[in-house]
Each structure stands twice: as C-alpha cells, then as structure tokens.
Design brief:
It contains twelve helices and 38 strands. The chain is α+β, with helices and mostly antiparallel strands. Strands 6, 7, 8, 9, 11, 12, 14, 15, 19 and 20 form a ten-stranded antiparallel β-sheet that branches. The structure holds alpha-D-galactopyranose (GLA). Alpha-D-galactopyranose binds near residues 478, 526 and 543. It catalyses: Hydrolysis of terminal, non-reducing alpha-D-galactose residues in alpha-D-galactosides, including galactose oligosaccharides, galactomannans and galactolipids.
C-alpha cells in the first residue's frame, strides 16, 4: 500500500521507496500540505510547522477570528486566487455573478489501484496507486478533483487537477495550474534550464529570494528559451548529496514555473499552464483537466534525482514499440545536402552509409511539393518527383535493398504562403481577420485547434506514410505562435486557442502513431525547442539541438540530462568545420559526444576520408556493443559544468555494477595545468575492474572502491595524440568487473 489514510486525523500519506508525501484536512475542512521529502515512517507532522500569527493574513469566514487558519500562512495543496492566500495560486475563476473567491474544502476521496488516463493529454502509465481527492467550493458546486499517482520505485508523484462545474451556470477559468509544492522553509536554490535556438537547456542555478522567480513560455510551445522542468534543492546540494525536488510538466505549450519565498520565509513552487493569454469557458456540467506534472524527490543529490527521472520517463512515460527498443543508427541528409538533393544523391549517401554499418536513412526537409528552399510548400505533403524520381515507393525499395530503413521529415503544423494549401485555404493559418500576420522562417502556423485542418494534414501524411515502407518520422516545428485566434471560437473564448492548439497537436500525433505503430517518431522543433515530457509521451526521442558542434553539445546534453533520459536525446556526428560554429573537432570526439544519445550521422559520408570512414565503422560497432549500458545504465555527471566548462566527464554504469563507460572531453586546454581528479560512481566497491582505453589498451586493474573513493586523474589532452589531434580531445574508458 503506497497510499494511507488516517480517518481520525484526516491524514493522507503517500509512501515511495525513499520519500513520504503528506497532507491533511484541517478543522475547517481545508486540505493542507504537510510534507514531501524523507520518509516519515508512519508519523504525522501535523502541528509542527505553523508560522504563528502574522497580521494582514486574513482568516476565512468559517474560522471566525482564528487567524492561524489563514490560507496565507498555511501550506496548501491547490491554492486559489481571491480567498486570502496572497501567494502564487494554482486556480483563479470568475463565477457567473462576477465573484472570484472560491473556497475549496475537502469533500471526498477515493484510492484507485491504477492511474486514470487523462483524455487527450500525455500522462505517466504503468503500475501505481492513485489518490483522488475531491474538493468543493464552500459556496457553490464548483469542484476540483486532485489526482496523485504514486510511482514508488522512482520516488515520483504524478499530479494533476480537474475543475468540474456543477454550479448551474457558466464559470470562466482564468488560471488552472497543475500543482503546488509548499515548504515550511526556503534555504533553497532553483535550477532551471534556459536557452535559445541552437543552445538549449543551459543550467542556471540561483538562490531563491523573497518574491518570485518565474520561468515560463508564452511562445505556444514549451520553447528553446525555457523548459517546463525545474529543480529546487538545498543550497549545499551536490550531485551526490542534499535534498532535491524536481517538478516536470508533461505539456508542450505555454507554461509557468514559479518559485516564491513569502513573508514567513516559506517557499512555494507552482507549475502549470501559463495563465497569460489563457482563459477557459466552462459550461455547467463541463470539466477542465490540467496537464500532469511529475514530482520527484531525492535526498541523495541531483544525480539520483536525474536517474529517477530517466527511469521513470523511459519506462512509464514513453510508449509503444520503440519506447525501450534499440533505436537504429541513422544518417540524416539535412547538413549533408540541405535542399539540394535528388534520389541519386540520397541513394549514394545511403550506399556508403550501409557499407559502414549505418541502419537508416532519414530524408529531411525538401522532398515534397515545390520545396526547393524554405520560402515555400509547407503544407503540400506530396512527394516532389523531380527530386525523388520514381516517388517514395521506389526510393524506399532502393534503400531497403541496401539493408537500410527509410525515414521522412514532416513539419505538420506549418503552412507557407507559397503553397497549394495556402492558395486553397488562406484562412487556415492562425491570424486575426483584418490584421497582419507575423512571419517567422518565412512561414505561418496552421490553426491546429480546428478539426478540419487536422483532418486534412492527417490525410496527406497518412497517404505518404502508407505509400512505402517507412520506419521513422521526424516531426518538426520551426516557429513559435503569433496572431493566436481561431475562426472556430467566439470572441469571448479566444483565450482557449493556445491550449486547444496543443490538444490538437496531441490528437494528430495520437492518431498517426496509432495508425503506424511500427514507425519510430522523433520530435523536433528547430532542434530542441519542444523538448519536454509531454512530447516524450508521443516521441521516445527528440532532436536535442540544431547545434551539432561537439563542444557546444557538451553543455546542451549536460543540461538536458538533468530531467530527460539519454534514450530521448537525438545526437549526431556532423561535418567540420561545424556548420553552426565553424569549429573543427576530431571525428573521434564527435563520436564520443553523439554516442551519449540516440546515435546518428548528419553529413555526406561520401565526402569524408577513408580513415574517417573506418572510424564510422568502428563507432557504429561500438555503439551497438555499448547500447544497453548507455541507455539502460545509470548516468552520472562527474564534473559540474556550472562551475567549469574546460573539461566534461560523465559515466554510464550498469545497474548491477558489472561494467561502466567513462567519457571525457576537453573543451579548453590550458598550459601547465593538471586535470582534475575523477571519482567514478556506481561500481561494486570490493570488486576488481579492468580498465581499458578506447584504443583497446589495458590500463590496469583496480577495485571499485579505489576508482570511486580514491579516484583517477583525468588524462591530459596530449595523451589523445593517437587520434592525430589534441584540440578538443576525447577519451572513453571501459570498465569491466572481473570478480
Ligand atoms: C529544423 C530542424 C533541422 C532540419 C531543418 C529543416 O531546423 O531542427 O534538423 O530538419 O529544420 O528545415
């Protein structure tokens, strides 16, 4: 039993392997949060955390003059706007009479032995127990149903809320966030993951201050600029020690994550749909379901927190045939050819790739309509037979005959003004009639909230995907939303369009992925602009960044690893000088970095040297050999890139400690400067390990304890001469347990 209810104390305790989550119903019927953290072993923490009286914090009517019951001073589960809690709220509503002060009280609860499916929204799945608590406004029949599903193995609680209107009149929802996490203290840092196109998910760690730190998106997608995942941790928390709480939203649209320190020096974290630009009209009898958030606790530092997310998302978020299956090593033609390709060029790249062991060719942007450049043809998902002569079936047969699979790029949510689709349906893009349209990458956005639009795109994609033996789809999205307005909805309901857009995208994805269960879908949005847990429910892998520079990727993949598994991180070896930075890195280094993700190539293999081709052959073999260690193993960040960026080191260790892979890459070499010590992780302390370098040379045999606690000095870059270059040197060491 992971969910306990004490009827006398009206106390709920959710137990996971290492954590407890506790809340209770107070004397006035309000649901108060008590604890999420270390295991309490059955005890209640009620009565120990009160801040005491503070003036200007009002008591609700039912509490008379009992100011200690002020919602402003007590820890909440689902705080509302308008009833005396002045901190960040989860819900704001306007009743038919204009009143805006709901008072949510406990009404009932149920314990379910499974996780309810959130219709039309991503959600965790798998074996778990769920607590469903129904709250009711004291004055009307407005209900809020809170869901808590307990994934005990990963110390994770999946939370969401459903607002149900039985008031007999319409209700306007002004804010409907997913979850709140209140703490009786605030000596914390916030880690968030900011960025820009081609430089996503950079870690920023900042102490909380009085007031609010909010990270958010109003771009219509989760965005490159911020990520719907934050961590709150002790100031002293490291990779291996300290309390950390992760809050990750399973949603791909506008979000807000807010960490606030209040007048009593208590911290509140809220996460959910961004209320900016949002409103929802709820008729009597209707309900609104928020997206889900996965809350994870670790008392053993940031590393354990990440590993819990990795396993939870790999096993209980990603779905379908490809969730846990070994992904094919692919070659993508984007950086190899951009728009300048035809079937002969593709087949010639594929021939070389097949010979080197690569398993799939992905035909990127440019195969359809009149798409000779990025000014036109989005929306015309019909093969261009000038480029792909003989059509897709013929190309696919030729690729399959080489023993390779074939994949295809789409950008389903977009429309070019110079397209057949736009000429036929100029009103299908997001725009406000009578006003201008903002362009970005020369394109407009389709109104995915409209069923007829989705149906049309679906039918075109379905026809292409049924026309040949496709194994993979890259689902791209290359601009953010503007002019958000839909012809489907009346003026007073335009605040629903951002969310309905996301629901529309999810619906189209669900439909196509159900129809083509064997196809591996990879997400993309100008690289990693929609790298979120919502998308991972539909795509088990996402192109991590348009930046393929191995050195820059170190930081991008480092940040991404905090909340997302390695098997989700699309990563390729590309040509040098690199197309984004102009930097030249060794081929070996590019391989080491790309191998910490879903491995592939993105360059013309006919243009590289024979020696590099041999490296490709060796890399593919090595990736296959190490696949399960990299994807199923435990991932450890060995050096803190927020402190130094000269050297990056990370490790994969098998769960049972039988083997490990240590990766080291130099981003900056300094003269006369000894490299740092590396302390390995995840080994069996009293077992012996043989350590071999990436030339196959045995370095020696040491015990796990020695390698973990005494450590080893990172090699100096000059030792990488074996690869012909010391700039940006990379090393891989394999550890094999002998006894
Ligand atoms: C985006 C993607 C790239 C490529 C181009 C094609 O930028 O991230 O990988 O597919 O679109 O236009």
């Amino acid at each position: 039993m992971s969910i306990l209810f004490d009827e006398n104390k009206k106390l709920f305790t959710l137990e996971t392997a290492h954590a407890s989550y506790q809340m209770f119903v107070n004397a006035y019927g309000f649901l108060q949060h008590l604890h999420f953290g270390e295991k309490l072993g059955g005890g209640s923490c009620e009565g120990l955390q009160g801040t005491g009286f503070m003036s200007f914090s009002p008591a609700p009517d039912v509490a008379g003059n009992d100011y200690l019951a002020s919602p402003d001073l007590t820890q909440q589960e689902y705080p509302v706007f308008g009833s005396g809690d002045y901190r960040s709220h989860c819900m704001a509503v306007t009743f038919a009479d204009g009143g805006r002060n709901p008072e949510l009280c406990y009404q009932s609860h149920r314990i379910l032995t499974e996780k309810p499916v959130l219709e039309g929204l991503p959600g965790l799945h798998g074996s778990c127990e769920t607590l469903e608590i129904t709250l009711r406004d004291r004055w009307t029949d407005l209900q809020v149903v809170l869901l808590y599903s307990v994934f005990d193995q990963y110390d994770a609680i999946a939370r969401s809320a459903r607002i149900v209107n039985h008031t007999g009149a319409p209700v306007e929802i002004n804010a409907a966030l997913t979850a709140c996490l209140d703490f009786p203290e605030s000596g914390f840092d916030l880690l968030h993951f900011w960025g820009r196109h081609a430089m996503e998910r950079l870690v920023e760690r900042t102490p909380l201050t009085h007031g609010k730190i909010c990270v958010d998106s109003v771009r219509g997608t989760s965005s490159h600029q911020q990520n719907p995942f934050v961590i709150v941790c002790d100031h002293a928390a490291t990779e291996d020690a300290g309390r950390c709480w992760g809050v990750s939203l399973l949603y791909s649209g506008n979000f807000t994550a807010c960490a606030e320190v209040d007048q009593a020096a208590c911290c509140r974290v809220t996460m959910g749909i961004n209320p900016t630009g949002f409103s929802w009209h709820l008729e009597n009898g209707e309900s609104f379901q928020t997206p889900e958030a996965a809350l994870v606790y670790s008392g053993e530092g940031l590393g354990a927190l990440s590993r819990r997310y990795h396993k939870l998302y790999r096993r209980n978020l990603c779905r379908g045939e490809w969730a846990l299956k070994q992904r094919p090593v692919l070659i993508n033609n984007w950086e190899a050819t951009y728009f300048d390709f035809d079937d002969e060029k593709l087949v010639s790249i594929a021939k070389t790739a097949a010979d080197l062991g690569v398993e799939m060719l992905v035909v990127d942007d440019g195969w359809f309509g009149n798409r000779f450049d990025d000014n036109r043809a989005l929306g015309d998902w019909v093969v261009n037979t000038e480029k792909v002569r003989g059509g897709m079936k013929s190309l696919c047969d030729r690729i399959n005959a080489l023993g390779m699979k074939l994949g295809l790029w789409f950008e389903p949510e977009m429309i070019s003004e110079d397209s057949e689709l736009y000429r036929a349906h100029p009103d299908w893009c997001l725009h406000v009639p009578g006003r201008g349209k903002s362009r970005s990458r020369n394109q407009l956005v389709l109104d995915m909230s409209r069923k007829e639009v989705r149906d049309h795109i679906h039918d075109m994609m379905h026809a292409v995907l049924s026309s040949a033996n496709f194994s993979y789809v890259k689902w791209d999205m290359n601009r953010h939303l503007t002019d958000v307005w839909s012809a489907e909805l009346p003026a007073g309901r335009q605040g629903e369009v951002y969310h309905r857009f996301v629901l529309g995208v999810y619906e189209l994805l669900e439909r196509l992925e159900t129809e083509f269960p064997h196809i591996l879908f990879e997400g993309c949005s100008g690289g990693g602009g929609r790298f979120d847990a919502g998308m991972l429910y539909y795509h088990p892998q996402i192109w991590c960044s348009d930046n393929t520079d191995a050195v820059e990727r170190l930081e991008i993949q480092y940040g991404t690893s905090f909340g997302y598994p390695i098997s989700a991180v699309g990563s390729h070896v590309s040509a040098c000088p690199n197309h984004q930075t102009g930097r030249t890195t060794p081929f070996h280094t590019r391989g080491v970095v790309a191998m910490s993700g879903t491995f592939g190539y993105e360059l013309d293999l006919n243009k590289i040297s024979e020696e590099e081709k041999e490296q490709v052959r060796a890399q593919v073999k090595q990736y296959h050999r190490l696949y399960s260690l990299i994807n199923d193993g435990d991932y450890y960040r060995l050096l803190d890139m927020t402190q130094q960026k000269d050297l990056s080191a990370w490790e994969f260790a098998a769960e049972d400690g039988s083997r490990a892979l240590l990766n080291i890459v130099y981003a900056h070499v300094r003269a006369n400067c000894p490299p740092p010590m590396l302390y390995l992780r995840g080994l069996t302390p009293d077992a012996c390990y043989r350590v071999t370098d990436d030339t196959g040379r045995e370095l020696g045999v040491w015990t796990g304890a020695v390698l973990m606690y005494a450590g080893m000095r990172a090699p100096i870059p000059q030792e990488a001469r074996a690869y012909g270059q010391t700039d940006y040197a990379a090393f891989q060491f394999e550890l094999e347990r002998l006894s």
